[in-house]
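Why does residue order matter? Because the sequence determines the fold. Keep that principle in mind as you read this record.
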Amino acid sequence: MTDKKMRECIAKALEEAAKGQTTDCGDTALKAMIECAAKLKLPLRFKIWDSKDKKWTYKSYKDFSSLDAFIKWVLENMGSINILDNTKKKPIKDLQPGDMVIYDLRSHGSSTYSGHVRIVIRVNEDGTVTVVEGHTGNAAVEQNTCTTEKLEGDWDGPYEGGGREWDWKKLIVNE
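Structure:
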């Protein structure tokens, strides 16, 4: 049930985000995830690399003074590539609202732009997928409709050749 409720909440939050917000594509996905977990009262944590202690660790909103402080920290310290550590592979043909397609763009040589995230908000009857993404030209968060061929073909193809879904078993902690 957690999976279904989170997917519905994320899709709705992202539809709202696409109404004029200006933010990074990875930040858009992370913020929607955090706000939905808080709304549903789910104990959320993210797996991240601690560069100071040189080890993987988990950070939860309980490690911060407020939910806003946690969101601020996540948006300052995580991005498209870090989302990979908190998701698992899923075939593009099986995408559902709340899932993502992540592109690893480090091979393109930019030191400031390492990846791109498209978040699914709807799978349409005609087989196309409606996504929300940022950094698509005018920097605003936008809704776009893509064919699966486009999802698979842009920017040398998505990371590991497929979609991603949040790894609920790692993210939602039973406390």
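The first strand starts at residue 45 and ends at 50.
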